[in-house]
Amino acid sequence: MKKPLLVAFLLLTLILGACGGGSLEGEEVTITGALIGEDQEGFRANIAAITEATGIIVTYQGSDNFEQEIQIQMESGDTPDFALWPQPGAVVDAAKRGMLTPLEDLDIDLDEYKSNFSSYLVGLGTVDGVIYGGANAANLKSIVWYQPAEFEARGYAVPNTWDEMIALADQIVSEGMNPFCFGMYSNGASGWLATDWMEDIMLRTGEGVTSYDKWVTNELKFASDTVTNAATLLSQIMHTENYVVGGTDAIVSTYFGNAQDPMFSKDANGNPGCFMHRQASFIPAFWPEAAQAGVGVETTVFPFPVIDESLPKAALGGGDMWGAFNDREATKVVAEYLLSASFHEPAAQQPNNARLSAHTGFNNDLYSKDINRILGTIITDALAADAFRFDASDLMPPEVGAGSFWKEMMNLAVEGPGYIGTAMDNIDKSWP
Asked: Which helix (H) or strand (E) holds 176?
């Protein structure tokens, strides 16, 4: 543990003692969550620092059945001190049931918390104006995968704007190749990849995050000019001849996990099957094993291009959030540490770490992997601009977000741009 952080927490312990809390040496604090495997080991490395600094024995236990187990614990009253949920919605549910302690009662500086994690993330853990959730890690979707060597060999420049990306795509087509990989078959969840594209476009058009937030709550209809325009731009990618390897048929029939495979193979002329693939940060786990070793170097990312340069640079993603079940002094110390910029430092430096800090002050240079430094910077920049947003389809009612929205994106891919109006109307009609 770095000495400045160690000193800070020793001082914090002394302050608590002076306030009547007494020594916290040997106090136990338990955390449960859904993190298992390497994610669990990284989280344990992070919380080991608080034990070293304060003597509080902090333990984390992950489970692949966490969501069911924590429900049983809450119903029985036998809860841990903290739970770390994969999505903020579960924090809100627990808070509405009266199970969680407000952050204010944990002596958290709420203004500082909002500044460090963005008003948006804080709002996701808020019920009736009271903040219950503590943001922790974030993941990223607003990225386009590409291979720098293939770009450099042909003199291609990484596009910063939508218009630059379209110009590059047109050039690639003129040279007899396909610019994009795009596959969204996902069994019963087919269509979500197109909704991700729509969400990225929505964040960069209209009023940006303002119209995006209205869209999520149905204040802005799918049939509105703003959302219809987003669908039109998506259709440009899906339906421009030769843009997508395999054509439109491949979009609806290719399993999303295999969509990028053409990028890793060459034709007789030494050209890859595609040059760009918009997909989230998790996708390397689905790549051919030989390609996985080159993540962040041979195959890396550029941010999803800017469409309206007057809007802040936004990012689409997700993240986890914790809640506390009591306000013991030891719980307060751990809560403060969980929200510190230094919390993710130990795990960040581990070779297999995949979790990214949601704290805007985190030093992204500390990540051991090239790709994490890139992803982390995109996330913290967007959070600092309060332009980081969660997946809209996940936030919409299930019959829309995981129902008509997915379905109509598949229909749009098949039917072509003339179907946009019908698709938008059908989704609006499905809203409960």
From this structure: none
CB 29 within 8 A of CB 58: yes
Bridge partner residues of 315 (DSSP): 388
> Cβ(4)–Cβ(24) under 8 Å?
no
pLDDT band at 23 (very low <50, low <70, confident <90, very high): confident
Q: How confident is the model at residue 22 (pLDDT cuts 50, 70, 90)?
A: low
- Cα four-point dihedral sign 68, 72, 77, 78: negative
Q: Rounded to two decimals, what is the model's pTM?
A: 0.91
- Domain range annotation of the chain: 3-140+318-390, 143-313+396-430
Q: Which residues of 89-114 are buried (b: 16+ CB within 10 A; e: fewer)?
A: bbbbbbbeeebbbbbebbebeeeebb
- Choose among 246, 254, 149, 153: nearest CA to 194: 254
- Check pLDDT > 70 for residue 12: no
| Angle CA 83–84–89, to nearest 5 | 100
Regarding beta strands 315-324 and 388-390, do their DSSP bridges make them parallel or antiparallel, or are they unpaired? parallel
Q: pLDDT per residue over 365-393, tens digit each?
A: 999 999 999 999 999 999 999 999 999 99
- Which burial class, exposed, middle or buried, applies to 175 when counting CB atoms under 10 A from its CB (0-12, 13-18, 19+)? exposed
Q: How confident is the model at residue 3 (pLDDT cuts 50, 70, 90)?
A: very low
- pLDDT tens readout for residues 184-227: 999 999 999 999 999 999 999 999 999 999 999 999 999 999 99
Q: What is the CATH number of domain 143-313+396-430?
A: 3.40.190.10
Rounded CA-CA distance 141/144 in Å is 9
CA 97 to chain centre: 27
Q: One-letter amino acid identity for 358?
A: A
The correct answer on CATH 3.40.190.10 for the domain covering 3-140+318-390 is yes
- Examine domains 3-140+318-390 and 143-313+396-430 and report if their fold is the same: yes
Are the beta carbons of 69 and 83 closer than 8 angstroms?
no
